Amino acid sequence: MMNEKEFINNLTTHNSDYNNPELAITTSNLCDTISRDINTDSQRFIYELLQNADDSSNESGSLDVRIDFINEFVIFSHKGASFTKVDIESISSAGDGTKTGDITKTGFKGIGFKSVFSHSKLVYIKSGKYCFKFDRNYWKEHWNSSWGNKELWESERRIKNKEENIKMPWQIIPIWNDLPEHFKVLPELNDYNVSTVIAYDKIEELKSSINALFSDSQIVLFLRSKKVRIAIYAEESLTLEKLTDGNITSLVRNDIKLSDWLIKTETFEINEEIQSAISADDKSPKKLIEAKFTEIAFAVQLEACRLRAVDSSNRLIFTYLPTSVNYNLPFLVNGSFLTDAGRQQLHQDVVWNNWLFKEIPLRYFSWIAELAHKDSAYRQDILAVIPSKLSGNQLSRSFNEGLEIALSTISFIPNNDGDLLKIDEAIYDRSAITQVIDCQLLINFINENSDGNFTTSSFIPPLEPISSLISLGVYTFDVDQFEDFISSSFFVDNFTVEDNIALIDFFL
Prior knowledge:
19 strands; Heat Shock Protein 90; 15-stranded mixed sheet; two-stranded antiparallel ribbon; alpha+beta; 32% helix; 15 helices
């Protein structure tokens, strides 16, 4: 059985063995393209490393990450599971990852890791007894003797006006190598199971980018690990934590609580129609084709123990880590959405994403109904986190389709007695006239003029912001209807002297 060094050396030979230099160049160009396409900003590769660390920490439920800077290197370490041989084979490939069939893992180990190479030409990895590197310069003068005469090949390339320097796909060829001596000033790294050491030309810019990235504490909210700690050691150290106490998740930076959240995860079955559509699409990942269940998670922010809408600039869609997509929902939503290579944008035209977007309001309003229950501490606050219809693209239309179904089938609006009503069962008396007259008189008038079937239990309290319900179509009795009401037979034939006096007092 091969030891760790023999395994890496064998992988080096296997992944660098090409029948001809053209094939090596083609593979190298493809690796370059992958690295560029999956990275759209200077900090995105940190997302990928964080996601891999979270996946590796699934079993313990605790994610512990440390980021250090030494000279022109950034070191990303975590205490998740150490690399196995299969893991190393995965990151030494492009798409042949360990997560393709595992729905408990967020990414596709092997693809996302390549984003590291868009900004670095030298990367070391230390995990357990393994220590190896990916190094572009190592292959600069490489030539396989089986390829024939190098000078003749270069001459032929010049005649064809092609690049005459050999390129090797160094991003998938690990090389056994101990960490350089100057990294040993961090003995703490021995406490971490995986350390990725990345050479970076613009290290000061990276420090600023990482600090800004983790200043947005919401980045860790939907990581699978229940407990998260990320420590960044630079000129100004920063520690970001996610802590759970009962049903409240708190985000803490440098021991100062930044925000509290309620998080709800809904796991549900993938119906046969969607499974068939996914299987028919050759772009669908293996893990989706084989999945029987999926999940959508929601996060609602708390402020002074009350529900509040997420700030508009932070209303991003998550795929466990945030994308760049903002649908202006007053809550955060996380799911296994299919994205572009950089995981920043959602695919609009795939069945899977449209199905999930249709499910979002159905699952969310079911949770809102729980929060609106008369025994809930949040029943007075639900309108602060109610979404409106979306406008724009195909995913918005799918969301609106699910919203219509949710509004017609889910009782989530508390009436004056605390019982829950559907949107078409509720009346908001903006005029407040029901405070001084018999409610049944107004109900009779409204039913006659709206073809409705309301009862005196239809009246709802003046929750705020009531505009959330009005935009969704709740029946509103307004002051401009008052004249028609008091001149109607429902009022004229039934009001009493006491009603008349009460009305006069009401208007005074």
